Amino acid sequence: MIVTEKKKIEDILEKIRDCKKIVIFGCGDCATLCKTGGKDEVEELKKILEDNEKQVVYTSVIDISCDERIVKKELKNLPEYDCIISLSCGTGTQTVGDIIEKPVFSGLDSKYAGSTRRIGHFTEKCSLCGECIINDFGGICPITRCSKHLLNGPCGGSVDGKCEVGDKDCAWVLIYKRMKKQGREKELLQYRKPKNWK
Ligand code: SF4
Ligand code: SF4
Question: What is the pTM assigned to this prediction?
Answer without folding.
Answer: 0.83
